[in-house]
From TrEMBL:
It comes from Gadus morhua. It comes from the Eukaryota. This is Annexin. The keyword Metal-binding does not apply. The lineage of its organism: Eukaryota, Metazoa, Chordata, Craniata, Vertebrata. Pfam families: Annexin. Belongs to the annexin family. GO terms for molecular function: calcium ion binding; calcium-dependent phospholipid binding; phosphatidylserine binding. InterPro entries: Annexin (IPR001464), Annexin_repeat (IPR018502), Annexin_repeat_CS (IPR018252), Annexin_sf (IPR037104). The keyword Transport does not apply. Gene3D superfamilies: Annexin. One of its GO terms (biological process) is signal transduction. A pair of annexin repeats may form one binding site for calcium and phospholipid. Keywords: Annexin, Calcium, Calcium/phospholipid-binding, Repeat.
Length: 320
């Protein structure tokens, strides 16, 4: 099997399958006992002063699947909703993170999209962040969760909140038709490069449909082979999609850095990225962050946040 020099991308007519490595910071808790966790949480909620430290300690050391078991056990034992109980006792950003941790991944993605599209203005950056970084299956689950939670389809929301080329790109991403393999087809890469060049250079106006089709159907490794052709969309709204396709860890490291640079901190970005990537690739994001900026993500969180928000964000970064 041939290998591209200096890369991990394999050239083959056959796709090989292997169990993916775990790059998250939160793994299933060993010797997990949801009944014990219910006791801990009930005591923390009902103490004279809410014991936020215990709540944080339990939730950031349990996987999402384990948190769902805790929710079911809590309701079975107390007759109450754990999310409702915590919502009534917690405040501000800590409440936001805790409630996010109690949602299933697809529910949380749906919540993020809903928040980005309701009210005045649409947060296009957040929509691209979610759709560009999720797998095909996660996008399908997101659409199901969105319809169930909010009574609208994602297509309907996109049509009402966006327009033009951006809307076309979002609809293409919702098809969840991206190649997720690691095989690089050099012949296809040459064909894509030619089409991209023709679409961007030989027309006064860029033929964006070509970019949309290639960006939303090719794998990340495949897109890197046409990397130089995307320079013509540097100032285009699709540049965020390009960068995410090339390297998700670098993409999210940059998002986190921008959330903390300069005056003020975008807590929403910190919470959203750390919760969503904690069981996916947050270890890789943390490593990439230090390589890119010369400081650890944890140190930047210490510098830019405080109190219980700081503690829960550091907890999501893992034990180290």
């Amino acid at each position: 099997m041939a290998v591209i020099q200096g890369s991990n991308f394999e050239l083959s007519s056959q796709v090989t399958h292997k169990k993916p490595e775990f790059h998250g910071t939160i793994a299933p808790y060993p010797n997990f006992n949801p009944r014990k966790d219910v006791i801990f949480l009930e005591e923390a909620i009902n103490s004279r002063n809410v014991d936020e430290d215990t709540i944080i300690s339990v939730l950031v050391q349990r996987s999402n699947e384990q948190r769902q078991e805790i929710k079911r056990a809590f309701e079975a034992d107390t007759g109450k909703s754990l999310a409702d109980e915590l919502k009534s006792e917690l405040r501000s950003h800590l409440e936001d993170v805790v409630l996010a941790l109690l949602m299933k991944p697809a529910q949380y993605d749906a919540f993020i999209i809903r928040k980005a599209t309701k009210g005045f203005g649409t947060n296009e950056d957040v929509i691209v962040e979610v759709l560009a970084s999720r797998t095909n299956q996660q996008i399908r689950e997101l659409q199901e969760a969105f319809k169930e939670e909010y009574g609208q389809t994602m297509e309907e929301v996109i049509d009402s909140e966006t327009d033009g080329d951006f809307a076309l790109a979002l609809h293409a991403m919702l098809k969840a038709n991206k190649n997720e393999g690691h095989i690089v087809d050099l012949a296809l890469a040459k064909k894509d490069a030619r089409e991209l060049f023709e679409a961007g250079e030989e027309h006064k106006d860029i033929d964006i449909s070509v970019f949309i089709d290639i960006l939303t159907t090719r794998s990340g490794p495949q897109l890197t082979q046409s990397k130089h052709c995307f320079n013509m969309v540097m100032c285009c709204m699709f540049w965020r999609l390009v960068k995410c396709s090339w390297s998700k860890p670098a993409f999210f490291a940059e998002r986190l850095h921008k959330a903390m640079e300069g005056h003020g901190t975008c807590e929403d970005t910190l919470m959203r990225v750390l919760v969503a990537r904690s069981e996916v690739d947050l270890k890789k994001i943390i490593s990439e962050f230090e390589l890119m900026y010369g400081k650890t993500l944890q140190q930047c969180i210490l510098d830019d946040t405080k109190g219980h928000l700081e503690k829960i964000l550091l907890g999501l970064c893992g034990p180290n």
